[in-house]
Specification:
Strand order of the largest sheet: 2-1-3-4-5
Oligomer: single chain
CATH superfamily of the largest domain: Nucleotide cyclase, GGDEF domain
Number of strands: 9
CATH class of the largest domain: Alpha Beta
Number of helices: 24
Number of domains: 4
Distance between the termini: 81 Å
Radius of gyration: 30 Å
CATH topology of the largest domain: Alpha-Beta Plaits
Structural class: alpha/beta
Strand content: 5-15%
Length: about 575
Amino acid sequence: MYKALIIDDEEPTREAIRILGDWPRHGIGEVLEAADGQEGLALLERERPDLVLVDMKMPVMDGLAFLQAVEQDYPDLFTIVISGYNDFDYTRQAIRSRVVDYLLKPVNRGDLNQALAKAAGVLEARRSSKQGHIDRDIALNMSLPKLKENIYLSLLTRSFRAGSSEAYLRLIGADDPAMRFGVSVLRVLNLDEVAAGRFKGETALLHFAAANVIGEFAEEGFHSFGLANPKRERELIVIHAMTGGYPEDLAFRAAHFLRKIAQGLADLFGIRTSAGLSGPGVVVGGLADAYDAAVAAADGADLFRPDELQPGERREAGAISIASRMPQLRNAIEAGSAAQARTIAQHFMAGVREQGHISFRQADRLLAELLFVLGEIAQDLGLPAAGDEEGEGEGGGTAGGEGSQPAAGTRGGGARGAAGVQSRGALEALGLSADFGGIDEFEALVCRICERYAELARAALSPERAFDVAEIKRYIEQHYFEDIKISMFTERYFLSREYLMKLFKQHYGFGIHEYVQKVRMDRAKALLDRPELKIQEISEMLGFKDKNYFSKAFRNYVGLSPSEYRAQGADES
């Protein structure tokens, strides 16, 4: 029998966990309790429990500090985090410590016992196995989810060793000859946006959260396990398992399950996905072929209809290449004309739209081709690397050129995986996101890439190459009474309107037009404090040709008319 330890500063919570846990069924014969992390560490040293359930928010020593101590001193201990605080730092430590599960209060019976079953399963595997390599893997702090992930990845990539590794198969239920498996592949369409907005830029945390959601959508008699592909960061893999029934039944249930997952990810995190299915269920030895089929289906999804879900590889139009447009693009870049470069890109995409179909695979290849050729053009023109211009990116070389090296991908997705790594690095150097989830977003990205290279050329070849966004701010403060247009700055600094507006807002928290209005209104308030000035005079001093327009703008900004503001000031004095 195993021994468990509950660490929580609230006695009612500890009691509830005791009552809800089906301890004997999971082989746990003794349950200890501690009120904080420090007391828990003392019990851990004295009693040597096999499993610890720990709260994160506690006095004296909280769960974060406890997990850090356990990670250092007890690498073979299994932990389940139970917390009422869905906090980023707590979750990140849970990932690093590879806890068995992360449960939020109030804990329900099903979630708790599912987590206990995970821990009991790997504890039993460690105890009963006579093969030393399994024990060593577990001792290296591989919790059951992580261990199952490695087993599945080895099966998907055909690196699973028959014979020496077969003892692992019972951890995924593959020792049952009636068990059938299937694979689904989800492409995360807005990875950069969600990682930045919801997970502080950490894609590992996004992957962890998404995998947990997949695990929570369990169905009776139909199990699904989610993991992120370490070689293709936009790819989530879902392994389906079912005992009995026809192979086609698994495919039907997988399609139904995947629709629920896609909606759940969208509702919880705003994650948008496109998916591919492997088809009828297979025995465990067929998982690699099933994965290849799911990848082909996901990569073949149509940008015109990214939400469609169907098994098998989709119809793919003929090869799409931008090579015929490159002489025109080169001329636009040499001239530093972002508008011309955008027009060329739009004409090319109009041809793509006429075909009525482009797969994600084709789109990825087209991006890789575009970035590579534009990188070559930039090198020929002697332009600096895109990252150097704004202090972004790593290493030398022009974006899309030799600075971006491919990384190995899993079988069935290696070519696209390598192209994706190259494209992502080049886009990051350009300050652009690799997100696109449909034909409109893809066209916008293609146009922006072409514009950006023209902007780089214009800035590099201009005698006024040095640019400080503070110059725009100073100009506004000195010339607020004039008719200020953004085109003045785009022509002066050879940069696009979109880029200048984004840069200014990043630095000062206001758009350029907003800041002009702020300076004018702040100056208006100061002038209204001078009773000798008429409102008409103030309007003209601020650059407003119409007193009524000034009054309306002031009311919208301050909430009072100029006369009301002046009267209020007089009353206060």
